[in-house]
Amino acid sequence: MGPVQKIRERLPEGSFIKNVLTLMTGTVFAQALLILLAPILTRLYDPEAFGVFALYTSIVGFFSVIACLRYECAIVLPEKDEDAANLLSLSLLICLVGGVIAFILMALWRQNIAELLGSPPLTFWLWFLPLSIIVAGGFQAFNYWSTRRKQFKRLALRQVTNSTVMLFTQIGTGAIGQPGAGGLISGHIIGQLAATGRLAGQIFREEGREILSSINRKSMGQMLSRYRRFPLYDSWSGLLNTASALVPALILAYFFNPVIVGFYALGQRVLALPMGVIGNAVAQAFFPRAAEAGRTGDLNRVTLDMFRGLLSLGVVPIFLIAMVAPQLFALVFGNEWYTAGEYVRWLSMWSLFKFISSPISTLYFVLERQSALLFFNIALLLTGLIALVVGGTQGDALLTIQLFGISGVIMYAYFSLRIMTMSGNGMKKTLMVFIKAIAAAIPYITPLLAYMILVGDPKISVIIAIVTGMVFCGIKARTLTRQN
Q1: Would you say residue 77 has pLDDT above 90?
Q2: pLDDT tier, 274 (very low <50, low <70, confident <90, very high otherwise)
Q3: Contact between residue 265 and residue 340 where contact means Cβ atoms under 8 Å apart
Q4: Residue 212: exposed, middle, or buried by beta-carbon count in 10 A (0-12, 13-18, 19+)?
Q5: What are the phi and psi torsion angles at 398 (to 5°)?
Q6: 3-class SS at 117?
Q7: Which of 37, 146, 335, 402 is at a distance of 20 to 30 A from 199, taking alpha carbons?
Q8: For position 54, what pLDDT does the model report?
Q9: Contact indicator for 239, 66 with CB cutoff of 8 Å
Q10: Is this structure's pTM higher than 0.85?
Q11: Is the distance from CB of 40 to CB of 171 less than 8 angstroms?
Q12: Which residues in 125-163 are b (16+ Cβ under 10 Å) and which e?
């Protein structure tokens, strides 16, 4: 039994922390299995196959954001389960219609799309794009229904099923002599089908009668109108958010070379993986809690508690990583990756503010302020783009990353403050929570800072950072267990 599982077993059923850890368990298993089996996949498939596979999954990821026109995000919000059931049905119907439209488009232009992307082998597999979009959209709808019902074990099992079926299908396909991108893509599709099918089966076995008895055309029409802000505003927000994640690599590739892009990509992945695992789990568990608090008038307290908890969890690890990132990357990945660690140092505070704000950004859905969220995503994309272009025109890669990191800190710091004021917590109260979190981190970071100033041996610095991080995690785990 792993440490996360041990902590989870000690917590009372239905507690917020237990829900977060349940979601994290599935994600951690999926990521661990991917890391464990990656060496086998890289021996079965060549880089070109992975390139075609990456293109396919990028296209699926981009369009799956709007597969249900974001109506799935509204499933958590209604007070009545009957309304939520009609939103679920509406989301699935929109997703199916979108899949049919995608099939027609692929029948007409799949070859042109593959040529435009510079990947002719992708032509055949674009036939399966509509199916992938339908399955991804269906999962999102079932995901939000399960989130509403606080059935987080279902979602953890879905992650485990998807990862297991996908990876073993990819390995099996490669082992029997189908080493092209088709083996990777087919494994991805089969994994998604198996996992989403299992989730749908669980839902309809346990709640199918309730869902089906609630569905009627009039109610679906009412939900279509009632939550029209989601397709009108949040669809664009979702696409812009996806674009914001893709733009840095594209701009860096334009101004510099693949080596610089590689440094950025590795650094971003190392920062995003642990923060993403925790942040996504927290966001999913927080959403139904915030929706309930919005109905009972307790939103300011619930949001403040979450903001305080995220800060106390994120400040120490991010500071430790920022302090030793270049040395850590050189030690773990090789000396040639030292520069990637320098990039991480400048992106770390941006990552901290994103970690704090992303889980509580569901308040924009709860308060139905999607238009404000859209404007933020437009500003985020534009400021990031300007920072990258200004740095790129100077021909200095490190300066480009510095400007991009600073712009991200400014935008996400503003975003955090805006969310807190929207929830009814004033700026003064929010800043005091932030200052207290920084003060609480000082005892953890002081020994490392003193050693780096007085001695500065890279390996010992990394060891001190790791030990300090482990001590912090142990203390935090004990505190969370006692509180719950």
Answers
A1: yes
A2: confident
A3: no
A4: exposed
A5: -65, -40
A6: coil
A7: 37
A8: 83
A9: yes
A10: yes
A11: yes
A12: bbebbbbbbbbbbbbbbbbbbbbbbebbebbbbbbbbbb
